[in-house]
Amino acid sequence: MFALVDCNSFYASCERVFRPDLRTKPVVVLSNNDGCVVALTKEAKNLGVKMCDPWFKIEREFKQKGGIAFSSNYELYGDISSRIMSILEELAPKVEVYSIDEAFLDLTGISHCMNLEEFGRTCQKQIMQYTGMPVRVGIGPTKTLAKAASYGAKRYPTTQGVLDITDLYRREKLMTLMPVNEIWGVGRRLNKRLISQKVLTTFDLINMNIEQVRKQFSIMLVNTIRELKGESCIPLDSAPSPKKQIVVSRTFSTRVTELDYLEEAVSDYAARAAEKLRKEGKTCKMLSVFIRTNPFRKQDIQHREIRSFSMLYPTNDTRDLIKHAKLLLKDLYKEGFNYNKAGIMLNNFFDETTYQLDLFKKKDRNSKDFKMMALLDQVNKSSLGQISFLAQGIKKEWSMKRQLQSPRYTTSLKDVLVVN
DNA sequence: TCTGGGGTCCTAGGACCC
DNA sequence: TCTGGGGTCCTAGGACCC
What we know:
Blueprint: E1 2-7, H1 10-17, E2 27-30, E3 37-40, H2 42-46, H3 55-64, E4 68-71, H4 74-91, E5 94-99, E6 102-106, H5 110-113, H6 116-131, E7 135-140, H7 143-155, E8 162-164, H8 168-177, H9 188-196, H10 202-206, H11 210-216, H12 219-228, E9 246-256, H13 259-279, E10 282-293, E11 304-315, H14 318-332, E12 339-351, H15 368-381
Parallel strand pairs: 2-4, 7-8
Antiparallel strand pairs: 1-6, 1-7, 2-3, 5-6, 9-12, 10-11, 10-12
Helix pairs in contact: 4-6, 13-14
The protein binds a DNA duplex (18 and 18 nucleotides) through residues 30-36, 38, 52-57, 59, 72, 98-102, 184-190, 218-220, 241, 243-251, 253-255, 294-296, 306, 308, 341, 343, 400.
């Protein structure tokens, strides 16, 4: 038996936690560069705002109607998230932190001694009391069904945010009402194909012929159907799995045509990626760089390309990564394009501690280089200041804007709320 | 003028091998 | 004229998730 605990409009609710005056106001949170809407409260939804709406298109009307917008403040959201997760860890024996605002719980055991709906309400109450975050809880025999229940809890106000669909009758009722595109694992493309075969609701889907589905679609959809029928195929994964890939990418605040600026940006991303890699305790062998123009500017000629390089020895040294990233970029770069985004990807990871010895090249893991990177991370983590490489740029004119950001209420002493 | 970022998994196709 | 079959591994791209 599984539960899914899901925060309501998470980022927007985080902003409300410290601004009780916004409790009934329409609130949206914007992506980097204040580009588009990534979270919105139901009041904002009622004004016609949709997820992913470009901010510049809705800004005027939204403000006129009394809406409030925030740039994203990931430091704040991450902190509130981890507080919620630790509350859940005390309530349930096993927890899988699925994303910043969602967790699956394993309810085996609990179902013997407690009514599950009641358990859901307890979660809701405690999280509200300790953090001020509104959540909903979906309960079912598989993860996909718990997700479906969570959809039901959102969609139908009479549930008051908790829905248990262990009961077969309730489950089928929900499935006849739930459109296929709301199912976990059915995205835009699949939805389109399913609709063309007159599969509109979840109930239609579970009545499809499994063999047909396997042939026409994929094993993934087959598993989804099995899960919807109550057969658990996706286990709870309580240990965070080690990363297989690290990506750092940003859109620029301005259009960039010069190689110099791109080099700065890509070096900066390489440095951040190297930092993440070291935090994972890994080295990588493969590095890719990509750049692209703005696909929304139809009047511009477009260029998007990615190029990869496999290094001779796995590394997590910032200087190695910057060096190779710049070389790849030089290969990619073409004059006369308005670039608006660049990024770097690291793949093919090795454990930092297990090192493939080389017959001809002696490289000690305790070398000066290794110590230097450790020191770099230590300083950057502390409040002493930031060390960066010159290649990362000084002014960073391409870097993103965040004009509407809230204070770091919980992670910076100087931003702590003062009560008079 | 202004449209996000970071992940995972699956699949098809090519290279290569015997 | 006629040019195999089967397997593995890797990669790029698609689809999906939040």
